[in-house]
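Quick entry between incubations.
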Amino acid sequence: MALRPPKRLWLPKTGNRPDEYEDAALAVYPQRIGVSGRRTVRVAVADGASESAFAREWANVLTDAFVDRPLDLCGLTEESLYAWLAVAQAEWHDCVPWDRLPWHGEAKARAGAFASLLGLTVSAAPDDPRQLRWQAVAVGDSCLFIVRGGRLQLSFPLEDAAQFDNTPDLVCSNPANAGELWECVRRGSGQCAAGDLFILASDALACWFLSRNAAGEKPWETLLTLNASGWAAWVEEQRRGGAMRNDDTTAVVIAVA
Amino acid sequence: MPYTADISRNNPGCFLFLLDQSASMREALGGQPGLQKMDGAADAINRILDAISQRCSQGMEVRDYFHIGVITYTTDNEGNPTLGSVFPETSLQQPFLTVSQVVDAAEVEERQVKESDGAGGIVEVTRKFPVWLRPTASYGTPMCAALSAASGAVQRWTGEHADSYPPMVINISDGAAGDGDPVPIAQELMALATNDGATLLYNAHLSEVSAPPVQYPAQESDLPPDEFAASMFRMSSVFPDPVRDLAASMELPVVEGSRGYVYNADMVALVQFLDIGTRAASDLH
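Done. Structure below.
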């Protein structure tokens, strides 16, 4: 069993420039996963909240942190989460030009940036290196979908398009505003099967995906067929037709062979 | 469905504030001794301009999600209307600046304020306070002239921004129009529309009559015994459903049919009124 290289697709909100895109997606993909038994694929998607300042930087810090500094998802505790987060918060703090902030940006910067975070790891099972095991952690409304045998096997952490609203749980870059994070952390894990499809999506795409699935369609087939060149036109079409909210849109698609 | 257009830099929103600077604005605000209406109103407008600027702030830059104008109105000592457009290089015909231009127009003062240190203590820190408007008050209340000027500016704006969220006009006044019946002129203003709905006109009525406050009434029978209250009520828009839902979520006393009208608000209620009045219930894109 092996993973195919991840496919990453992204598009800013209509009306925004590429450098205003506030989602982030990052994947590390070792070539020999499952063979050595020691390697792990790590993928993260974060969605910076536009209402906050330096959210793009925070989303990137979070995804970098998830793939570069492995968070022990098996043994995750409140203490280990906050210790991991503290390093990321310090990195974000260093990104902000505090001495050059304009007056209108000061209060928001002091409050900190906010972002959803979804992290996925896939690694060889400890007791059987030929098997692959996945683990996921999520705060907020970026979602992981696992498609198996032609149907949606798992939707995590949200399961219904009606659950998307304007007040998702978020990770904050200011430690003073991140105190209740532990209660918002959702975790999942399971075994991979040959033919599985893993899809990580930020909220606008995730909401579209669950709506189409609920309508009896197979939205993953659309995502599988799209490539980088057709993706933007397809997303724009969904937005224009009202099928997808005009928001930064991000997907990472990984197939298990 | 009206009042659902996304607000973006391509389709910005529009706020126009009308501020009465007549002599009665020297009276106490909301029965609070030591705080004159003119001070409270100017402070509230400065605060809401600050809040809008911060809402549009993205780190180092500001996104131009809104066009904003402020028109003041009073008379000279012979009763002739004296109207002014507050922002630099604007006029009564074109009173609007983009948010980034509004930000640039601010005079920024530094004040010492006490804040929580996050550990149960209080610390004194220096914070920046932007100021656009200074309090002043004298002579009469030419509200009809102010509403006419607003109509001209809004008509031009809606003509140029047909797909935008409708303009929001917020009038802060003693309610005692000295130049005629303001209701027909206000109704003309409220009939100006974009493809997303008609202009919203909200009124903060800081009356010369000392009557208890009323917030967001839905019918005339809710009004205080004040000869000008019915007029001010009739020229106040019913909150669109998305705005009323938002106001309810902010625990403001709104019901079905509530209008954007507050009577004899104190400072807290006045700031809340400006806050809800400048909240289109749509995302900023």
